[in-house]
Sequence to fold (920 residues):
Amino acid sequence: MSSTACILCGFVTFLVNTQPVHLLPEIITIGGLFDKGDIKQEVAFRYAVDRVNHEKILGTRTKLRTIIEKIPPFDSFLASKRVCNLVRSGVAAIFGPQSGQTSSHVQSICDALEIPHIETRWDYRLRRDDYSVNLYPHPSSLSKAYLDLVRLFQWKSFCILYEDNEGLVRLQELLKTPSPNEFRVSIRQLPRGDDYRSLLSEVKATLEQNIILDCKTEKVADVLRQAQQIGMMSSFHNYIISSLDLHLVNLDDFKYGGSNITAVRLIDPEREEVRDVMLDWESGRALHAHKHLDKDLINKLRNISFWTTETALMYDAVKLFVMAIQALDNSTDVQMTSLVCEGEDAWVHGNSLINYMKLVKLNGLTGNIEFDALGFRTDFCLDIIELGMYNLTKNAHVVQSIQVGTWSKKTGANYTRTYQDTYRKIVDGLQNKTLVVSFAFNDPYIMKKAGWEDLQGNDRFEGFCVDLLTEIASILKFNYSLVPVPQNLYGSRDRVTGEWNGMIKELLEQRADMAITDLTINFEREQAVDFTMPFMNLGISILYKKPQKTAPSLFSFLSPLSLEVWMYMITAYVGVAFLLYILARFTPYEWQNPHPCNPEPDTLENQFTLLNCLWFAIGSLMQQGCDFLPQAVSTRMVAGMWWFFTLIMISSYTANLAAFLTVERMESPIESAEDLAKQTRIKYGSLASGSTTAFFRDSNLDTYKRMWAFMESTTPSVFVSSNANGVKKVQEENGHYAYLMESTSIEYVVERHCDLTQIGGLLDTKSYGIALPPGSPYTSAISSAILSLQETSTIQLLKRKWWKERKGAGKCNTSKDESGSSSMASELNLNNVGGVFVVLLSGMGLALVVAIGEFALECWDISKEDEVPLAAVLSKELKFVFKCKGSSKPVRKKDSEIDTGDNNLYSTETYGYGAKNPLT
Ligand code: ASP
Fold:
């Protein structure tokens, strides 16, 4: 075998490994049936045969000879006649035709005469005749590829634009959606003629962004151009083109639109084998050698893109035949036979030849070629290609379709492009593009410049967000055009109709590429549009009139302690006095000789009467003391504890009173959202159509629910159309209106309006981000730009500039003593002084235990001395104590001393077993 045969590498392996043992006939005739006017197929067929002969692939002796018959696409009778002509000439195989109607007749004749029939046409039948193979991938496989693409892109809905019914067959897998919830499909047929604008406008009105276009390759550019004219080729739009020949379409016009155009292809022009054939074709070497084609036609064909999927398949078909006949030659002596359609005879080698065709594996222009037993192509691979603008040099871009992945039946669709590739493509696509940016006015995010009426375009506006956008645009090198949103609405969804308003609506209806201002990222919005990384964090708070300085009240001396503490103190005072009284009666050591000069008094006195106890307690509390003091351990413990308590309380009171007298009191009727919720006198509201309103509307917390019910039901409405109006309302209503506003905006406002302040902390935490239409390709690029601006502190610097340095900042003296509630002395409540009450209580408890001990000990002594049962002593003594009457008590005497007269107060009857002076 000649080494020149190496050009077709698929053949090389085969030729090197096999040595023919038989000689092939000198001439092998093959028939080609072509639709009239389908010159490309015929040329491809001839070119492939020419190359085989020229490169002596079948050996130096054997040549392929072609017999070409042309038939009208719908004339099956003529087709049958032409096939009979071919078989009479003794053909080894018949190629074509492309028309479905004539092809089935050809197939059945070939089947009867056992002549292999090789097709390269789109055919959706599920069964083939035995003697036929088709190199064109079966439509069901292709439509599976489109389904996999849709899944890869995670489309939730799309519209199929098809030209004829074959298109629906091609996309059948998408129509029999496995799960109805996976995606929504709408189907529209392209009208006849060449004006598709009205249909495209209808699709545009549905806001559908994903389109699958199935039409002839020649029509693709036309449809896309008209789509571009009506604004359907923006970066919001994604297209899958079902044509396998997108490389033939001039897509230059769509390079700046930014829409994503994806397709699949069988031929990869980068593959060596394909490049070799294409170069050979372009050089015209093979064609010039061809006698059958006139020069004009050759030149014409060289100027148009000749290599379509179908011409490549025809080339591969010839290659397949050559491989199969060589394999047949290895096993048998091949003879060509002339046959007649009407006869009984069939070609003896036909069966083996078709089986070899189904068995061989080769690498053609259309990739791996293999067949299943039915003659359908299996195991083929499709390239996923995407149209994109790619950076050649710094300033030069080129539009090209590049391979971004592969598809095969076994593995499905696989993206081979890295995240960096995708990112670079997006960034490249953004360059020099002008994005429409919707915004709502709010100081200091976006404001009108002074004298803005005389300015033009973006120059009319200034603010934090304008600066931020300029920074992002300079990183990503895009231009932008600022467009104020109608009615200055941020965007909220109508609960009944489900429709959005404001900037979110602008994005959803594709009137803007981006929305920027103090736009809060919340769940509902995140479901509808895409958000970038946040550029600022904040929370909802309350904007309210600064608390007014109040004149000290007549009873301001009560202020240092809360009412609660005062009440507890009074209770403690009464409690301690009463306990002292009881314990003093209990303990024997508080009963004293009223006349110290008389060593044997008749009675003992207790100085702790109830009144004295109250006096003693109040005297201690007032730090004045009193003329009698406790003697017993238990009562001294009570006194000690009480003194400790009064020490702490009086010091705390004094210290706090000093603070109250030196600080001017500023009173605010509300200190938190809870305070607002509890009352109805002060109205409160928020920005209509904003996330703050949505927060209260959707909250599940009781307080916020109550606040929402109040806000909703209040008339006139408490909602305002802009933050500026909210601020004005708070000022005008002078304490009768509080505005629920975001903390960063409050920060800006209180810096400039000294009569306003923030009340309480943050009710939630959230962030501002830039919103983009759902599925926008620019989200990650803009997020990256925001992150880099955050890392270089640019955002912080911009915030400082717009909050602290620009337009009226620093007007208010916000030093501690002026700023209201934070510097106020606050009354002491139980939390501050609760501990001292606890200590007091514990002391009282301990004193009680000691008193009981003293009492018990005394009773025990008496019972022992007088030999009276302890129970009797206890009962007598307790009775006396709890009589709570009288502060004197007879002295207990020994039995001999007891006067038994009736009047004797110390008789056993009156005092029982007698009593003794506890001090003796
Ligand atoms: N920043 C808010 C928004 O995005 C405005 C507000 O509700 O206070 O809706």
Remarks:
- Confidence is low (pLDDT under 50) at residues 1-20, 392-396, 816-822, 898-920.
- The first helix runs from residue 9 to 17.
